Target: Response regulator receiver domain-containing protein
Amino acid sequence: MKLELVLVDDDEVLLTILEKMFLKVRSDVKITLYNSGQKALDHLTNTHSVSGKRFLLVDIYLNDMSGWDLLDELTKRNDAASKVFILTSSVNPIHLETAKNYSQVIDFFEKPISFDKIHRIFELIEKE
Model:
């Protein structure tokens, strides 16, 4: 089963760094990068997950929509295949509480992302 990760962040440099870090931990992962929530939604609409599940790492603050807007759209679409990790520089505790309101959200991680956090993400994915 090929694991699919969709990374959504408006910081393109960070996306490149994250891609390299994730691939260093697991080279067998298919990673798709999007600097826009809408582009990520278009991808999810136009492609189907080979394994039946795909995992998104979504920043709360995007240029075209918020991570919450993206989650709201996934909810409207009844997208059961997409599981989400929130990835944010926000330290606002309200955001952690908001994330708990979405059934698609597996966990919430604050930036910067470390290799320990990446290992934790893969552990959580294995439990899904």
Observations:
- The chain has one domain: 4-127.
- The chain has five helices and five strands.
- The domain at 4-127 is CATH 3.40.50.2300 (Rossmann fold).
